Amino acid sequence: MLCTALLWQGAWAQRKSVAELTLVYDYSAGTADSSGGVSRGDGGASAVHTIYIKGNLSRSEMANSLFSSTIIFDGNTGFGVILKEVSGQKLLIRMNPDNWAERNLQYEGIVFTNTAATKDIAGYSCIKATGETHSGTTITVWYTRNLVPETRSYDPIFRTLDGLPLEYELAKGKMRIHYRVSSISFNPVPASKFDIPSSGFREMNYEESKKMNIWPSADGRPAHP
């Protein structure tokens, strides 16, 4: 019993809360095949997902050769902006706190259950956990408790997770979306990363974007199940 207590004390002693952080994930999407593998297909099946965190400000970027999508969110005010560039179109969609809450409603109340599985990712010891959204998307995540952003609002999916996700998969039906961290930086994030463009984009509000059927997927990613 004493040894177990000492191990837990050692683990919590390594817990590091960070105010500024840059995370880069490799993203891939595909469908599960009969052998249990995943067919990635082509087109938008792979991308780079980058997250910048500075205090309660966050910027989430997804990009490949065909598209780019950026979400800037202010956790202090609850306001957010989505910047999309697809097929030559550049759109800026503004969201107030109610819009943001509606857009992320499916992630409310997710309960993550830890398993006994562990592994090291990027030099951090990670625990495997599972959860499910209201729409039936299953989330399998490997996360570390030793590195925790001060803000929990940077990604609505993991707002209730007790740590930082370093690898995760979203699954619904045969659709699979996979993320794995490729780099972690603790360097200061420039304040300019959270500036909203004043020109070059066609601007609209949340309701207008829904009526035009150009609304991005529920979590801002290009192929969410």
Write up what this structure looks like.
The chain has one domain: Clam (outer membrane lipoprotein receptor (LolB), chain A). The protein has 225 residues and is mostly beta strands. The chain is globular.
Biggest sheet: strands, sense, closure?
13 strands, mixed
Work out the count of structural domains.
Answer: 1
Q: Which spans have pLDDT < 50 for at least 5 consecutive residues?
A: 1-13, 215-225
Helix content: 10-25%
At the fold tier of CATH, the topology name is outer membrane lipoprotein receptor (LolB), chain A
Q: Describe the oligomeric state of these chains in a short phrase.
A: single chain
Structural Rg: 18 Å
SSE succession: HEEEEEEEEHEEEEEEEH
* General form: globular
The total count of helices amounts to 3
Span from first to last CA?
44 Å
How much strand content do the residues show?
over 45%
CATH class: Mainly Beta
The CATH architecture is Clam
Task: Determine the mean pLDDT.
Answer: 84
Total DSSP E strands: 15
Which structural class best describes the helix and strand composition?
mainly beta
Looking at CATH, the homologous superfamily is: Lipoprotein localisation LolA/LolB/LppX
